[in-house]
Amino acid sequence: MFVSALLLLSDNLNTINTINPLDFLAAILVPLLLFAMTAQAMAPPEIPPLAVSSSSLSSCSSRSTGSTFLPLSPIPSNTRAATTSTNIHLVILIHGWLGSPAEMTAIQAALQTQIQIMAAEDTPDTSSDTPDTQNGPINNDIQLPPDTSVLLHSVECNDGKTHDGIIMGGCRVAQEVNDIVQEILLQDGPKKISLSFIGNSLGGLYARAALPHIQWTVNIDNNDNQQQAETIQISPNVFCTTCTPHLGKRGLTYLPLPRFVETGIGYALQPTGQDLFGVTTVVQDLASQAKYLTPLSHFAKRIAYANAFGTDLQVPTATAGFLADTESPHFLAPPSSEQEQDEESSSPFLLTVTTPPDDQVVQQTMEASDIAAQQDMTYYFPATSMARTLDALGWTKVFCDVRDKLVSVPIPFNRKGKDGTDDCSSEFDTHSTKQWTSHQLKNKLANRIDYDQKWPIPIGHTMLIANSKSKLYAKLNRGGLEFVQHMAHDFLKDLLIVPTCMNMTTGKDEPSS
Known about the structure:
There is one protein chain. This protein is α/β, with parallel strands linked by helices. It is 37% helix and 16% strand. The protein is built from 18 helices and 15 strands. A hairpin with an 8-residue loop joins strand 5 and strand 6 (230-242). It starts with a helix and ends with a strand. The model is unreliable at 1-59, 61-81, 126-134 and 417-426 (pLDDT under 50).
């Protein structure tokens, strides 16, 4: 990492007379921050990561058939409450690298508060100092339908095990999800189950890697009544990620790094780092192979939250929002109602855009990937191709401005842009334009823009989700609670009002419960 700092500095020696002091400072500090993160990752973790074994890989592969046969067994004593409803919306929360289930405490608490409001229960006491009460719940007119429950579960399987690669983590997530679904189906009565994900950071890639191994069709054998086995279809509903490196980190670090430095960091961060920095093909496989793209395309809605304006050191805007130098169209998402328009005026989100589905682009990508696999070819799928394919699935992208929530360093000089304007006062206009290309959004949102004559330190990665994996994290990230409350409100609205959910067996839409 020190080598990268020297390289960055040497690149600027020829223009030392015109270099901006802030850029000069960033060229020194950012590689050092990355080095510190690498050193932390190289230190022995509190819980040793699981070794990748052939048995664990085969166990994961055995779950990719899409259908399983479950005998009806006694209800476990630890079965979670509210599973007696006929219609179940199961929401899986997945933490990120070096994280734990506690990382998702704030979003889980915000979701639970909104669920209670929609169920017409008494508004919870907001006097306690808990993550969900620092910013009040957002009232809305959406009611939880009768005989319907929303179950929240924060995965535990990857706690202390985020070093052994994206695929292994995804397999463990799939196993835990399948076990939860089985637990739900062991309750009496028929069930209609929808499955949704909220993956934070690496957790979003874990969710994508888990999809081929989810048991979307489950057969239940009711031995007690000697009845024919009942088939239950699990419907994919909402797929949501926050600050997830969808394009990996290769060529997408906060400041450009030489390829050999990226490779070194990848090896230092063990298999997960090798996946993220493109030493392996895992990230490009997730964005090109049919076994990953097809189930992802079946979700009723896909949402990606990303930090804008260079406030995320770990996962910059371009990879979190999969923005690249392509012409993929992005349209300003209009409010769907007068009430939503009023809510938008107080929304903390900077910009919400949608990408239209393009089945032809997705199909061409999957066919090219299949040909390469059949011919045992090693191929490189660049970030532009990954971004174009993901856009073609149809996404809602929400870009967030957390600059006013971050610790900032005063700038003792007037920073001027290339056009002579004051960068410190430069903002992104979300009203005069209704459509952009991916390339245009990348240029506007992925660059660092100063705020109020200050340079925000780029620690927005944990701020957006109000990461609460420790008391210190909870205090440092309290500023993100406003985003979390709106995120929970919008997620549940999508969860309950999406018009259809996909039947994973037939590939056809069916009414959502």
